[in-house]
Structure formats: structure tokens, C-alpha cells
Specification:
The complex is a heterodimer. Chain A is an all-alpha fold. Chain A is built from three helices and no strands. Among the domains of chain B are: 78 residues, NADH-ubiquinone/plastoquinone oxidoreductase chain 6, subunit NuoJ (Four Helix Bundle (Hemerythrin (Met), subunit A)); 37 residues. Chain B is 78% helix and 0% strand. Chain B starts with a helix and ends in a 6-residue tail after the last helix. The chains are: A mainly alpha, B mainly alpha. Chains A and B meet through helix 1, helix 2 and helix 3 of A and helix 1, helix 2, helix 3, helix 4 and helix 5 of B.
């Protein structure tokens, strides 16, 4: 009645690939984190579509867990970015190419 | 074409356009604002697909809390002065475009030809009461693990965000 199941999944796939492309191609650390956020959202969209398709609430429950993981990931990721920016003064992922043994 | 379909495809267009605009912006603040639009358009779609509580949480948590956190951090950090040239960007973009293009065509072929994917989903609404019962009766252990994960993230963020004096004193020996 609403839409074919494949269209929901296709939208989720396109969103996920957009996020993946952002995480691959961009060099700003914040933009990489934004790409990860988009990917997590696409995963939750796929979960909700599947939950509606199979009439099971388990898919929606997993979206709650995705929200929790996304919140934790953003908190730690942003703290890491701030920390490394303080130490090296760079926001560019290419600036972190030197190791110190 | 029913009203549901019109709303779904309209929202899908808004989500995709806002996301494409977000991931191509140079300035991170613009990207974050476009991402907020994307999440705000995704929330009614969650409602349309039968998850009213998750639609609300999407607005409160994602568009509200997480993106505001992003905005705070973006404004805390200094602006990046050295912008890469267009040639560098084009050179770094093509692997991403190539890989995502291949996966997208593969997934589109699979999803649009699979007989399972053709079945139309019918509208349903999961009431928050029912949803909460399933969450706390069947998945209570997962809820506890998630709360522990959030606690660990809190401690980690606090530890990383502490004042950087010890690091500045002994730059050679920090591990």
C-alpha cells in the first residue's frame, strides 16, 4: 500500500553509500565523522523498513541501540578530534601521517 | 498514487538532496546544518514506516543533541586555513565515486529485481507502549549494555577532554 519494500531499502543503500563516500573522500576529520553518522542513519532506516515489512518490533529495538552507539561514538570521536587537534594543530587527516616509535 | 507514496518520495528526495549537499560542502558548519535538514526529513519517514517513537527520538537525539554537539565542536576548533586545491580533491574523489557507483548499481539491480523486494509494505503503527514492553522485556540486557557503553563513552570523553598540561610538559614520553 505505501511503497514497494525495495524502494525503502534502495533509499537506505543510497544514503549509506553517500555516507561512505563522504568518509572515504573527505580529509577533514569532522567530515569523516559526519559520513559515519549518515551511514548509521541509513542503517536505522533499513532496520525500520525491515521491521515494517516483517511486522516484528525487533528491528525498531535495534534502532534504539544504533542511537546509543551513535551517541557514544560521537562523544568519543569528537573528544579524540579535539585532543589530537590540540596536540598537532591539524584537522586534516593527511597531517597524521607520522609515527613516533 | 496515494498520499503515502507522494509523501514518501517527497521526503526521500529531500533527504537525498540534503545529504548530498551536506557531504560536498567546504565549510563544516554548512554541512552540519544540511545534515540537520536531512535528519528532520528522515524523522517523518520513520513515522510513515510505523515508528513514531523513533521519529521523535530522531529529532531529539540526532537533529537535536548530536548535531548541536557537532556544532559546538566545529565552533570550538579553529577554522582550517589551508584548503586543498581542486586537483587534489578530484584526485582523491574518484576512488570513492567509483566504489560507491559500483556498489550502488549492484544493489539497485538486486533490490529492484528481487521478488521479495516487490511486495508492498502496508502501513502499521507500533505504539510506544508496545515498543517499550518489547524493549524492556525481551532486550533488557541490551539496554543495560547500552547504558554501560554510554557510561564508558562519558568517561573516555572526559579523560580526552581534560586540560592538556601533562602532555605539554613531557611531549616525548606520552603514550
Amino acid at each position: 500500500m505505501i511503497v514497494p519494500n525495495g524502494h525503502v531499502l534502495l533509499l537506505a543503500v543510497i544514503l549509506f553509500l553517500l555516507g561512505a563516500a563522504c568518509a572515504i573522500a573527505r580529509r577533514n576529520l569532522l567530515m569523516i565523522l559526519i559520513g559515519v553518522e549518515v551511514m548509521l542513519n541509513a542503517a536505522s532506516l533499513a532496520f525500520i523498513g525491515a521491521a515494517l515489512k516483517w511486522r516484528q518490533l525487533d528491528g525498531q529495538v535495534f534502532v534504539i541501540f544504533i542511537f546509543a552507539v551513535a551517541a557514544a561514538e560521537v562523544a568519543v570521536g569528537l573528544a579524540l578530534i579535539v585532543y589530537s587537534q590540540r596536540r598537532t594543530g591539524a584537522l586534516d587527516a593527511d597531517a597524521y601521517s607520522r609515527l613516533k616509535g | 498514487m496515494t498520499l503515502y507514496q507522494v509523501v514518501f518520495y517527497l521526503l526521500a528526495g529531500v533527504v537525498l538532496a540534503a545529504t548530498v549537499l551536506a557531504i560536498t560542502r567546504r565549510v563544516v558548519v554548512h554541512a552540519v546544518v544540511y545534515l540537520v535538514i536531512s535528519f528532520l526529513a528522515l524523522a517523518p519517514m520513520f513515522y510513515l514506516l510505523g515508528a513514531p517513537l523513533l521519529a521523535l527520538l530522531e529529532v531529539i537525539l540526532y537533529a537535536g543533541a548530536i548535531m548541536v554537539l557537532f556544532l559546538f565542536i566545529v565552533m570550538m576548533l579553529p577554522r582550517e586555513t589551508r584548503a586543498p586545491g581542486l586537483g587534489v580533491l578530484a584526485r582523491q574523489c574518484w576512488p570513492a565515486v567509483l566504489l560507491t557507483g559500483i556498489s550502488l548499481t549492484a544493489m539497485a539491480v538486486v533490490l529492484l529485481s528481487l521478488p521479495l523486494a516487490q511486495t508492498p509494505v502496508t502501513a502499521a503503527l507500533a505504539s510506544p507502549r508496545h515498543f517499550g514492553r518489547v524493549l524492556f522485556e525481551k532486550y533488557w540486557l541490551g539496554v543495560e549494555v547500552a547504558s554501560f557503553l554510554l557510561f564508558v563513552a562519558l568517561v573516555g570523553a572526559y579523560y580526552l577532554g581534560k586540560s592538556p598540561e601533562p602532555v605539554a610538559e613531557e611531549p616525548g614520553e606520552s603514550s
